[in-house]
Amino acid sequence: MTMMERGLAGGTAPGSEAAWAALAEAVLEPRRLARNRIVAGGRSDPAHVPFDLLRTRMLRALRERGWRRVGITSASPGCGKTFVTANLALSVARRESCRVIALDLDLRIPSLAKALGQRGSARIEDLLAGRTAPADHLRRVGPNLALGLNAAPVGNPAELLEEPGTAAALARIEAGFAPDVILCDLPPALACDDVLAILPRLDALLLVAGAGITTPTQIRSCEKLFGETPLLGVILNRAEDGPVEPYYA
């Protein structure tokens, strides 16, 4: 595949190959992933199959519409949205022709680093505010996956997500690295106004519903909240299969 053939939405930007290769590397430890039920990095666990199905359907929808940015949220805490984000990112990364960047934009309770067994990550607040360049914040896992993790909660999350600086940071990531997909792990949609604040920066959403947790009324409330932002689908997840997130204070 040539550089011009790569990408779901218009090919690879000049210089992105070198920029991607120059990212500092992160290593995912299989035992830590297995402990958190992050199974989609390989084919040894049959639980990877639903994530591969989700990946294929999502990539097809994005390709047809020229979209890249997908937010992953839930109605309430404990539904496994971070679990889905991590597994979906690893599933996409198994596609040789696809680059995926996973960003932890749950600024109140960041948990993507923990789910992936990563320590010592930087503050994503500095990336969104323009104090840190994407090349200094992102960490590459293998040839096709990059992580934008977060080490600490942010005091003013909705305000930060709504600032023009966040839009500029996402644009810099796209321009510099030409990812095929950017997956954003978001907070629960009905727990705070953060998802509402980030909606204008996204192309589409995936909603994770927790079995025995999420109600039809909550799903309808989320659909109303999302407004004109397209909902790619509702994913039914058994929350006990993934990391259980605490409720917001």
Automatic annotation (TrEMBL):
Keywords: ATP-binding, Kinase, Nucleotide-binding, Transferase. This is CpsD/CapB family tyrosine-protein kinase. Residues 72-240 form the CobQ/CobB/MinD/ParA nucleotide binding domain. CDD domains: BY-kinase (cd05387). PANTHER family: CAPSULAR EXOPOLYSACCHARIDE FAMILY, TYROSINE-PROTEIN KINASE. The lineage of its organism: Bacteria, Pseudomonadati, Pseudomonadota, Alphaproteobacteria, Rhodobacterales. The keyword ATP-binding applies. Pfam families: CbiA (PF01656). InterPro entries: Bact_polysacc_biosynth/exp, CobQ/CobB/MinD/ParA_Nub-bd_dom, P-loop_NTPase, Wzc-like_C.
